[in-house]
UniProtKB/TrEMBL annotation:
One of its GO terms (molecular function) is DNA binding. Belongs to the TBP family. The keyword Mitochondrion does not apply. Signal peptide: none annotated. This is TATA box-binding protein-like 1. Keywords: Cytoplasm, DNA-binding, Nucleus, Transcription, Transcription regulation. The keyword Cell membrane does not apply. GO terms for cellular component: cytoplasm; nucleus. It comes from the Eukaryota. GO terms for biological process: nucleobase-containing compound metabolic process. It is found in: Cytoplasm; Nucleus.
């Protein structure tokens, strides 16, 4: 009996969580002349109406929003480590332009993750069951589901796609683990046309992710496994958070020069 259950776990497909965007912020602790950055910097755009300069990097492929106060936000990274590397490179670029930058107050602000369930979801009955769910089909095609623990906001679509916004990669994983047993009650099997369209969409997304540096590579573990007929559904393969050494963490808290 145990061997049969373990065999089912192996045969069933996994639900992969893909990290699409990691947003971080940091401070260089000096006043920045935006006009000087726009005139002498590389890959920059001066947005005078917003009072900031945007700067881009190719590796890792990210975009930074730079304010004159020294505060900088960086978007576009797919891992925490990529986000940290990009932030240091932006600080170094500003230092080469003559500013006395100091890399401080680095933190992860937001993480965007997506996954696709191996079934479609009846979102109308789902939104009626849970008070945390908000569904306005005239405004948005998906259900907005807000969690308090873990702190996350999920967008659930009828196709089975789920988008998660959370403060960290770990909380994205925990949010998917928490929402899975709730949406599996409202699943419906996809038609052959829907399967083909979704497969084509996944191929295009995988190609785009590979061109940008790939999907977040991390440890995977099954968080749910059981008989599909009994409501156990499919196992979820969760993406773990990228980590770095304690020495690096200490250097971020200190006023380290780039």
């Amino acid at each position: 009996m145990v061997e049969a259950a373990s065999q089912n776990c192996v045969d069933e497909p996994e639900v992969d969580i893909v990290i699409n965007n990691v947003v971080c912020s940091f401070n260089v602790r000096c006043h920045l002349n935006l006009r000087q950055i726009a005139l002498h910097g590389c890959n920059v755009e001066y947005r005078r109406e917003n009072g900031m300069v945007t700067m881009k990097l190719r590796r890792p492929y990210t975009t930074a929003s730079i304010w004159s106060s020294g505060k900088i936000t960086c978007t576009g990274a797919t891992t925490v480590e990529q986000s940290k590397i990009a932030a240091r490179r932006y600080a170094r670029s500003l230092q080469k332009l003559g500013f006395k930058t100091r890399f401080t107050n680095f933190r992860i602000v937001n993480v965007l993750g997506t996954c696709s369930m191996p079934f479609s979801i009846k979102i109308t009955p789902f939104s009626e069951r849970y008070r945390e769910a908000e569904y306005e089909p005239e405004l948005h095609p998906g259900v907005t589901y807000k969690m308090k623990k873990p702190k996350a906001t999920l967008k659930i679509f009828a196709t089975g796609s789920i988008t998660v916004t959370a403060p960290s990669v770990t909380e994205v994983q925990e949010a998917i683990e928490a929402i899975y047993p709730r949406v599996v009650e409202f699943r419906k099997e996809r038609t052959q046309e829907e399967e083909q369209a979704l497969r084509q969409k996944h191929l295009m997304a995988s190609a785009a992710a590979a061109s940008r540096g790939g999907v977040s590579a991390a440890k995977k573990r099954k968080v749910m496994c059981g008989d599909q007929g009994a409501g156990g559904g499919y196992p979820v393969a969760a993406v773990g958070a990228a980590t770095w050494d304690d020495d690096d963490e200490a250097s971020l808290d200190s006023s380290e020069e780039c």
